[in-house]
Design a protein that fits this description.
6-stranded antiparallel beta sheet; Jelly Rolls; mainly beta
């Protein structure tokens, strides 16, 4: 009988029942598909140990180059703001009088956690109390200087690169804000300015100390017509996208007297957190409360997601404000990190390959990150404050093992039992992965496991079933490439 190719499309498919994922990859960790082959995500190595300088999990990172061409890296947690030099020296630049925030989000359903006059005495409230998000920072650079705003503190700060002088409040800037961004036209946007959840205020062009509108400047403000609250913003080519809890808006520079025009470009597409938005040349991508969205230059749309049930069905929604996004430009991916259902801290990721249009999933503890470019490699940070350089070939993945496992693969016509006695591997670096097979005679039958089989050409195996699952695991710190495996199978009757 001819060899049967186990040819599965790239990416993970995890929607609906187990059998609905037939002939697709169903589970994975630290695996990507790139340029026609399956391979492990690059490993990592420690870059800087900031664990003794950070008292809470870092929630924001920004990297840029100053005028003297030095690389700059800033990291912020609920309790502090630090600068990490290229030499690894960590300097505390937390503003004087900074109001520290909360590390974990909370839903208060106890006394005082709802509204006066609702409910009955002695009857517990439903799990719908007042929600308090975890606190994080908005970070950007104003030329070579850092600008920053913490959700707990609400002030706009600037740091002028002197490690002996902490960040200081920007003169005349609004207070009680929830974030900031610098536009392409060199205006500083303050989000939720003055405590108004719908207000965007901006400074004069090239002058972040002038905020009062006048005929002689371009400062201004507007209250967006939205039922939600502003969450975050990011600059795009010629525009700035602003996300609320319910919709998306675009700000376009028009010049005096109105300076900026605002247009709503999407409804029912709010963001899940203040750090879940990434804007790149291909568009803006973000995570919502139950879906993923993209702004393609025309309108905001829900993305077709092959792992939507898996991600949002196993997420700790009370801690969703910790989720964040990072661009992995080398491989054309957007990664979102989030806490799983039984975790209060980030421990999982989901990634979208926007070049090849597929999804990847896995487990990894990272709380903020920066793409390569300023530094040669991506820099990602765990909850303790340890900085890692990522995407390093053969560097290892700590205690984690890259693997991928398929959904059910029907053998033959799906009716007859097939006996498999040989596997023909398609592996670039043969011997650096092993394969396991799991068989069933019916969809709800007991599953039997065979292997692991180390790859030789050919590999002798022996099992039978109507459907199989294949699991491929790394055996070391290799940079393997796996293509289309083939099996030698013959009919073996009915059962």
């Amino acid at each position: 009988m001819p060899l049967i190719p186990l040819q599965l499309p790239a990416g993970v498919y995890r929607v609906g029942t187990d059998y609905e994922g037939s002939n697709r990859w169903r589970d994975a960790n630290l695996i990507r598909w790139h340029q026609g082959s399956m391979r492990p995500v690059g490993g990592w190595r420690e870059k800087t140990d900031a664990t003794s300088d950070i008292t809470a999990p870092p929630r924001a990172m920004h990297v840029w180059v100053s005028n003297n061409t030095f690389a700059r890296l800033i990291m912020g947690s609920a309790n502090e703001l630090v600068y990490i030099a290229a030499t690894g020296t960590v300097s505390d630049i937390t503003p004087s009088g900074y109001t520290t925030g909360v590390v974990d989000a909370a839903r208060n359903t106890a006394f005082g956690g709802s509204y006066y006059g609702t409910g009955f005495y002695g009857v517990s409230r439903p799990n719908t109390g007042v929600f308090q998000e975890c606190d994080t920072w908005s970070l950007d650079n104003w030329g070579e200087y850092l600008v920053a705003c913490s959700t707990s503190d609400g002030k706009l700060y600037e740091w002028q690169l002197d490690t002996a002088t902490p960040a200081a409040q920007i003169t005349n800037s609004p207070i009680n804000c929830k974030g900031l961004t610098v536009t392409e036209e060199r205006f500083l946007f303050a989000l939720q300015a003055g405590g108004n959840p719908r207000k965007v205020a901006w400074s004069d062009r090239e002058d972040n100390t002038t905020w009062t509108p006048a005929a002689t400047n371009e400062a201004g403000d507007i209250e967006l017509q939205t039922s939600g609250e502003i969450m975050c913003a990011a600059r795009m080519r010629g525009r700035t996208i602003i996300l609320t809890t319910v919709d998306a808006h675009i700000a376009t520079y028009q010049g005096p007297p109105y300076v900026y025009g605002f247009e709503r470009v999407g409804t029912a597409c709010g963001t899940a957190s203040r750090k879940a938005l990434i804007a790149i040349d291909q568009g803006a991508f973000w995570m919502g409360a139950e879906s993923f969205y993209v702004f393609d230059g025309s309108s905001a749309k829900q993305m077709q997601c092959d792992v939507q049930d898996y991600v949002f069905g196993n997420m700790n929604k009370n801690q969703i404000s910790k989720s964040f996004a990072v661009h992995n430009s080398e491989f054309g991916e957007i990664w979102w990190f989030y806490p799983s259902q039984n975790s209060t801290e980030i421990d999982r990721y989901v990634a979208f390959d926007y070049l090849e249009k597929h999804w990847e999933v896995g487990e990894l503890n990272r709380t903020c990150a920066a793409d390569q470019g300023i530094y040669n490699l991506p820099i990602w940070v765990d909850e303790t404050g340890m900085l890692y350089e990522h995407e390093i070939l053969n560097a290892g993945h700590g205690s984690l093992v890259p693997f991928v496992e398929s959904g059910p693969i029907s053998l033959g016509n799906g009716d007859s039992i097939m006996k498999v006695n040989q596997l023909i591997p398609d592996e670039d670096t043969q011997g650096e992965v092993q394969v396991k097979f799991k068989t069933r005679f019916h969809p709800n039958d007991t599953e039997r496991e065979y292997g692991a089989f180390d790859m030789v050409n050919p590999t002798s195996v022996r099992f039978s079933g109507r459907q199989i699952r294949m699991r491929v695991e790394a055996t070391g710190n290799s940079d393997f490439r796996v293509g289309v495996m083939r099996i030698n199978a013959t009919p073996g009757g009915r059962r």
